[in-house]
Amino acid sequence: MMSRIVSFSSRITRINKVRGFASSSVIFSQKDPIWLTLYAKQGCSLCDKAKEVLQQVRKDPSMTQKIKYQYVDITDPNNDQWWDAYCFDVPVLHVDRYNQKESIKFMHRLNAEKIIEEIEKY
């Protein structure tokens, strides 16, 4: 198995190549914030509502230091893998933290209280 580390700002992504297939996983340290990644598209009313819900979460004083946020427009040609995965399921929120192997996913109708509850679990 070949493995290489690629740095993206404060996160590190490990890319493993096994039998010609590539997979990636995010590597965090305990000091890293929790990453919230919203996968959405323009012209989607549920996506607009999800952005509002995440704005509430991000404005919560107890969340400011705990989270980082990024938005992924799945219609961008550079995001074909996310279009293939979520074209009929947006919005999708991934919650990633240092001690988990796979993202926690929230889909469709997001709820600020449930997202905050998930963030505070660890």
From TrEMBL:
SUPFAM superfamilies: Thioredoxin-like. It holds the Pfam family Glrx-like. Gene3D superfamilies: Glutaredoxin (3.40.30.10). The keyword Transmembrane does not apply. Keywords: Electron transport, Transport. Belongs to the glutaredoxin family. This is Glutaredoxin-like protein. It comes from Wickerhamomyces mucosus.
